User: Fold Bifunctional diguanylate cyclase/phosphodiesterase from Cryobacterium shii.
Amino acid sequence: LDSELALRDAVELGEIETWYQPIVDLQQNTVVATEALARWRRPARGVIQPGDFIAIAEEVGLIKQIGTEVLGQACRAANALERGMAVSVNVSARQFVQDDFGQVVKRALDESGLPPEQLWLELTESAVLEAIDSAAKTFQELRGLGVRLAIDDFGTGYSSFTHLRAFTVDLLKIDLTFIRDLERSQHDRAIVEGILRLADSLHVDVVAEGIETTNQRDLLKAMGCRFGQGYLFSKPAPSVQPMVQFVH
Ligand code: G
Ligand code: G
Ligand code: MN
Ligand code: NA
Assistant:
């Protein structure tokens, strides 16, 4: 309750920050994008992780405000780099079902000057499913703006294929649970290969999440996976890491 009250003022007080984790082109060895990850810098309590406040924000109706703040910060940060860097922003179901979500995104693009194709929006499968009726309209609006749409945590949702049939997306982010045991598990390799083949037929790009070892990276690269993200490259950090920092 204490944290709920504090969270109500967090945006106004400038306590919501955005951290960034690079997304790497595995084939080219370059950073092409960065995922925006919300953090709450609470005075005298330090940096609070999204796992400890995003769910509260959704319950008490603050996610719209916080999400809009993160979106704005992320677009400004990506645009400030002036070198084609994309930024990938998480969108929860509650945000996505807002009537004016298309407008919120348009405003963030206009105010930051970020080219639309440099904004990726990560939707979870459950977010899309919950919003199945209003989602179609919002999807059209977002496609019209020219932003790129990604399904986050792909493979963990209920009926992943239904979403692929219903909506045209540009990217799939393979959930890190499929990447973790890639070296040991023939089974997981088969699943990831299947997702890559499917994505290829659908002309959808893939980001493998949670890459922690060079072996995982090399396997994914050999399988033809285009993009990757994980602690091997960088943990989330308070500013966008420049491309030159990428040395693996
Ligand atoms: O950064 P970390 O790995 O702790 O993120 C944990 C979870 O919080 C992830 O599932 C991520 O998608 C979610 N998350 C992080 N930032 C945001 C945000 O700005 N909005 C929403 N809706 N979720 C976020
Ligand atoms: O649900 P979403 O994919 O948005 O969540 C991203 C989360 O994954 C963040 O909390 C981020 O800190 C975490 N993450 C990013 N890279 C790695 C990694 O290599 N290993 C693990 N275990 N977590 C990671
Ligand atoms: Mn994400
Ligand atoms: Na994910």
Notes: The first strand starts at residue 16 and ends at 25. The domain at 2-234 is CATH 3.20.20.450 (TIM Barrel). The pocket of manganese (II) ion (ligand 3) is lined by residues 35, 90, 122, 152 (CB under 6 Å).
